[in-house]
Structure formats: C-alpha cells, structure tokens
Amino acid sequence: MKTNKLLYVIFLSLTVLCFVEKATGSEKSALKDVFKDYFLIGGAFNHNLVSGEDPNAAEIAIKHFNTATSENDMKWSLIHPRPDQYNWEPADHFVDFTEKNNMVPIGHCLVWHSQVPRWTFRDDSGNQLTRDALLARMKDHITTVVGRYKGRVKGWDVVNEALNDDGTLRNSRWLQIIGEGKPEQQYDYIAKAFEYAHQADPDAELYYNDYSLSTDKEKCDGAVEIVKYLKSKGLRIDGVGIQLHAGLDYPDKESLEYCINTLAATGVKVMVTELDIRTQRRGYRGADISRINRQNTSDPNAASAEIQKKLADKYAEIFSILLKHKKVITRVTFWGVYDRTSWIRWGSPLLFDRNYKPKQAFDAVINTVQADM
Ligand code: XIL
C-alpha cells in the first residue's frame, strides 16, 4: 500500500513536471543554437528578469539568448535621475546577469529625446543651458556611464531616434540647444555623443538606433546621412540598429531589403535591435513612445488561430529576409521576452505568450533556418 502511494506521488510529480516543461517549452530547440552560424540572438531584459523576480522569463532568456539589451535601466532618467545622483544598482544587475549567463550585453541608450529628465537641459536657476553647458553635461553623463561598464558592455546605442519619419532631424532639445538653429551645426550633438562614447571606452562598438527605418525609405536615407557624416569626421560608428517594431502587414519585404542593403552599403554592421510584431490592425505604426502611450491598443482577437497563423507567417517572412542578409546582419534582438511584459501592452507581439509558452511563431522562426540550408 505504502509503495503504491509512493509510486502514485512520483507519477503525479512527473506529470506535473512534464506539464511545466511543456508550458515553458523546454523541449524546444534553443534559438541561440539554431542561429549560431548566422547572428547573435537576444532580448530586451527588464529589471524583474535580471533580479530573479521573474524566474520563468530568466529561464527562457538563458536557454534561448546569447545577447541582451537593457530595456530601461540604462536610460538617462533611470540611471542618472538627478544631477548629482546615479542609480547604478539595476544596470549593474543587468550586466552581472548577462556575464553570468554568457550573453553579450548591449547598453541602451546614451542620448535620446525620451526618458531624459527635464533638469538635463536647465541650469540650477531653471534657465535653458547654453550649447557649451549642454555639451559638457552630455560629456559628463556619457563618460560616467560608459566608463563604469568599460570592457564589459560590448556596444552602445549612442544616439537613439534622432530622425523624423521624412529623414530630417527631429527637433529635440538636443538639436535645438546644441544645433543653435544653424544648419552647419545640426549634426553636432550626434557627432559629439559618438566622440565622447569612444573616448570613454575605445573598444566598445557604437551604434545609431531608430524605428521605421524599414518602412520609410526617406528615414532610412536619413540614417545613411548620419553614418556618412560621422565617417566624414573620422568618428567611430560600428552599426545601425533597425528597431523593427513591425505589424502583421509591415514592413513589406522590399522596404526591409532596401533598408538592409542601403545601410550595409555604408560599410557598417546592420542589427535588428527591438523586434516585435503588433497584432493590432489599426492605429499608429511607428514607435514614438508618446503616441504609443496615447493609443488604445486592446486586441481581443490576438490569441485566435487566424491571428497566430498571420503572426507566424510574418515572423517567418522577416527571418527569411534576415537570413538572406546574414553577411551584414550581426544581431537580432527581440524587444522583450514574453508577451505579458512587452511594452506593447496588448496583442501578441513576441515568440512566447503571456504564460511563457512558445507560440506557433516560435516554430516558424526556427523553420526558416531549415529552409535556408
Ligand atoms: C520602451 C520600454 O520598452 C518601455 O518599458 C518604456 O516604458 C518606454 O520605452 N524604442 C526604444 C526603446 O528605443 O527604448 C523603447 O522602450 C521602445 C521604443
């Protein structure tokens, strides 16, 4: 009787274990193994993942990814909330976690118009800083942050989202103050950011990163102009990050290929830095945070078989193009790990669902490699 009970308990435990295993997809191949001959593959990590508060997400990340980007904790307003105060702990956790798990850590981001405190652009009396004072502040921030992780963070998104969708430069505080309205100074803030980052860690790779590069050709051309300008000044730029916040029907193949080819022609590496696919059919297509936040994004049909099939097809299409350009694409990073913590609050944007389960899209992505062989 006792033995029977024991056997029953063992049987039950094994069944539960099998279910949990299946639920997090541990029987599936690891993305990083499947893509090892092509490019690094990774995700954006939030603080819960790296601090141990979301162990299932960490398990997925450790199994599948060999590179990671800090989702928020290295942004100016989080890492440098007040003029004389740096908040290192979350970013330290991120870098420690990636090192412990043999992942290439990417720093995101040094200069951006969003998630930057208001004080950044003002002096102690609240007046707008002069060009020189803002350059000094930018230098101090970059030197301190890049310097802290020197030799550890492999590459930095130095400037994020400097472009409008038509390829002109976004009228950010950075451009207004450092550019002083003079056309000949318009690229100065970008050039200085790259110069300071290189001084702080001469071995780190330096990237320009933006969204809609693969949907708006003019914007992609604008990124090319940035690369050319930096190169003409003898500054280091290693790569351009195509964020690739996609939708079920964009970008189309032709514009994605145009973007990869045009960027690669400048001689830089091309990276997909923030991949996800919105399943909502209506609404704004870009990735401007203020517009995304204002949008009603509820998506009741996201889990339906029809949408999941479309999602799998779109992921497969994107990956087959990325594989075709494997010579110039060095990294593909998803913006998140599983749907519940994605910045796209509703819908079904990633490869793992809200319960950590791999979706049909996961298998579709793996299958693109077999098709490529
Ligand atoms: C997003 C984060 O995912 C959110 O958690 C945060 O609230 C806002 O920023 N482009 C970028 C990323 O370069 O930094 C943004 O990340 C998404 C769009």
Relevant terms:
373 residues; 8-stranded parallel barrel; alpha/beta; TIM Barrel
Gist?
With 373 residues, the chain is an alpha/beta fold.
Helix-strand layout with pairing:
Elements: H1 2-23, H2 31-34, E1 40-45, H3 47-51, H4 55-64, E2 67-70, H5 76-79, H6 89-100, E3 104-111, H7 131-148, E4 155-160, H8 173-179, H9 188-200, E5 205-210, H10 217-232, E6 239-242, E7 245-247, H11 253-264, E8 269-278, H12 289-294, H13 305-324, E9 329-334, H14 360-372
Parallel strand pairs: 1-2, 1-9, 2-3, 3-4, 4-5, 5-6, 6-8, 7-8, 8-9
Helix pairs in contact: 7-8, 7-9, 10-11, 13-14
Residues 71-72, 160, 243, 274, 287, 289, 343 line the site of (3S,4R)-3-hydroxy-2-oxopiperidin-4-yl beta-D-xylopyranoside.
Describe what this molecule looks like in 3D.
It is a single chain. With 373 residues, the protein is α/β, with parallel strands linked by helices. It has one domain (39-372): Glycosidases (TIM Barrel, Alpha-Beta Barrel), CATH 3.20.20. The chain is built from 14 helices and nine strands. The protein has helices spanning 2-23, 31-34, 47-51, 55-64, 76-79, 89-100, 131-148, 173-179, 188-200, 217-232, 253-264, 289-294, 305-324, 360-372; strands at 40-45, 67-70, 104-111, 155-160, 205-210, 239-242, 245-247, 269-278, 329-334. Helix 7 (131-148) links the parallel strand 3 and strand 4 (155-160). It starts with a helix and ends with a helix. Residues 71-72, 160, 243, 274, 287, 289, 343 line the site of (3S,4R)-3-hydroxy-2-oxopiperidin-4-yl beta-D-xylopyranoside.
